[in-house]
Amino acid sequence: MFLSDKINLLSDVIEKTKKLGATDADAIMINSTSINTEVRLEKLISLERSEDVSLGLRILIDGKQAIVSTSDLSKSSIEQLLERCISMAKVTPENPYLSIATKDQIVKKILELDLYDGQEPSAEELINLTMIAEATALNNAEITNSDGASAGHSSNTIFFAASNGFLQTYNTSSNGISVSVIAGKDDDMQTDYSYSQARFREDLKSPEEIGKEAAERAIKKLKSRKIATSKMPIIFDSRVARSLLSAFASSVNGFAVSRGTSFLIDHLEKEIFNPNISIIDDPFIIRGLGSRPFDAEAIMGSKLNIVDKGILKSYFLDLQTAKKLKMQTTGHATRGIASAPSPSCSNLYMLPGKSSLDEMIKSIKKGLLVTEVFGHGANIITGEYSQGASGFYIENGEITFPVSEVTIAGNLKEMFKQMLPANDLKFESRINSPSLLIEKMTVAGV
Questions:
Q1: pLDDT, mean of residues 3-19
Q2: Cα–Cα dist 275/445, whole Å
Q3: Crossing angle between the packed helical segments 3-19 and 75-91, to the nearest 10 degrees
Q4: Averaged pLDDT for residues 415-438
Q5: Is the pLDDT of residue 1 over 80?
């Protein structure tokens, strides 16, 4: 099916919903292609390539909603899909907050954000990348085994249409390489990983750099020790600090706020961080992993200062959560083929501070540099935070030895107030943070 055929199909689906009695409707179609490969110890473990076209339809009838999806785009299948969705919508409970964007709200100009590579790598190229990444890591004598290396590429053509007259399409791509290796032997074995992800292959780290970093991270964790339970300053390195920013994003998500399940309800225009903290969400970063020309309700959105010098300025809102909270959407709706729109961040990042990570370490008499966390994490209803962690003990401003099997705990409200950012912000994911110093947390050890 050609591009024009898919556009015509989507337009026709929307038109038919109106004739069948829908008050409003929107539909998303995703044409996706992906290729992924995995190797371990120089042997090919898997090689997969897939192509898929799926359509998701949402129908509203006087505040009642139904959603259906299909991968069968034949005429008979689409007709059945429409009838089923109409029938479902008529019997679902009414929700007074449901709506689609008005003609005044929909995006008028589609920005070019350079999100599509346009070049699919061959299987041989991907296998070669994984082989080099793993071989580079295994070339270190202290690396004794491998958990494997993988590389992949995906591309999507996204079509969106609605009964408000909106009909647009755009392309995206994603490329990635990762490797995980094991250092040491017998009772002293440690594993770690490195990865790189980007819209364009040319923006990926080299496989040699990824392999070298994975090996170095695993080796540094050898001969780890346990430490006594105490309260101390903690530095979250930038890779781990993303999880704190992700917890913050969940707590200011309009869905949680409107349901009363966030500890930051009624905190707009209040100081929740110290004045050194500003947090930005920007859907328009060129080649950004979370960039999008419009959200899942055809609304453009904008660069959002969600925290400005410690003060919470906005929640992440879509049309439904905004209406429920008596506010305006921020253009943060996201949606899958078979799901309703819900708010989510795009490219979320914290502005860097002035101090380097080394300077932060030198400022600490006794503390912990956390480089890995695991376990439950944050409870966004209460703000309680508790995670298993490993990293490195800091004493008199120096990294002294690796630490394992500890639990770090605190409350996000207190942690946010104490938080200080380093100057090492890098854009390597959809959510990015510099390393973060928190002045005091509980570390449960032996």
A1: 90
A2: 32
A3: 40
A4: 97
A5: no
Q: Which residues contact 202 (CB under 8 A, 6 or more apart)?
A: none
Q: Tokens 């200011």 appear where? A: 252
Query: What value does the CA radius of gyration of the chain take, rounded to a whole number of Å?
Result: 24
Confidence of residue 375 (pLDDT cuts 50, 70, 90): confident
Give the residue-averaged pLDDT of 305-332. Answer: 97
- Decide which of 5 and 180 is more confident: 180
Q: What's the rounded mean pLDDT across residues 365-385? A: 94
- CA distances in angstroms from 356 to 153, 193, 276, 309, listed in the order given: 34, 24, 15, 20
Q: How far apart are CA 368 and CA 194, in angstroms?
A: 22
Residue 412, token pair as written in the block:
């996000």
Q: Both tokens of residue 386? A: 């508790």
CB 192 within 8 A of CB 43: no
d(CA 362, CA 437): 12
281 in Cβ contact with 348 (< 8 Å)? yes
Task: Supply the pLDDT for residue 376.
Answer: 80
- Spatial contact of 392 and 403, defined as CB atoms under 8 Å apart: yes
Tokens 């089923």 label which residue? 84
What distances in angstroms separate CA 14 from CA 1, 23, 79, 88, one per listed residue? 19, 11, 12, 17
In whole angstroms, give the CA distance from residue 54 to residue 28. 8
Phi, psi of 442 (to 5 degrees): -85, 130
Look at residue 333 in the predicted model and tell me its pLDDT.
97
Residues 138-150 have pLDDT tens digits of: 999 999 999 999 9
Kindly report the pTM of this predicted structure.
0.95
CA 143 to chain centre: 30
Per residue in 209-255, pLDDT (tens digit) is 999 999 999 999 999 999 999 999 999 999 999 999 999 999 999 99
